[in-house]
Amino acid sequence: MNNAYTVSSYLKLQDIDYVTGLALRIADSLASRTTGSGIEQWLGKCLDLSKAYKQMAIHPSHRHLAVIFYHDHSGAPKFYVANSLMFGASAAVYSFNRVSRSLWFLLNKMLVIPCGVFYDDFPMFQPESLAADGDEAASQLLDLLGWKHAKTGSKAAPFQQRFNVLGCTLDLSEIVEWAAL
User: How many Cβ atoms sit within 10 Å of the Cβ of residue 9?
Assistant: First the structure.
């Protein structure tokens, strides 16, 4: 299936280098200000879409294009018809990334939340005084758009000085002090 798919554009993933670069950009912005009011601690979190591929339904008129044929253990022919994007399919990866980049754009432009996107993870940054409101606004936007996302549990941690992102821990606890150097 993947060998039958041709790519004419390539993914530009916002990996840990992008996220740390964004954190450094925030620190640089803080450093350009004078000390006093307006300088405050920044926090981060990673917003996670729940079962992201399963949320991308296949249009009923396209279901004939989402059929997988295989032979089971006994050699009998079997067909699987997908109702959503198939995880592991190259076309699904590209389709999903177009949508996740759109969500990233809305978070950055509509809500003015500095963030990145890596597939279904959205590392976000906020000043401490705006963190709770930013968290709520991002959640409400996704709710309005119909996207299920982590609201409880370990994947729904609030904004904090140290947060897990893309398999790493990013520590923002000294960003104000670092910016003052």
Answer: 7
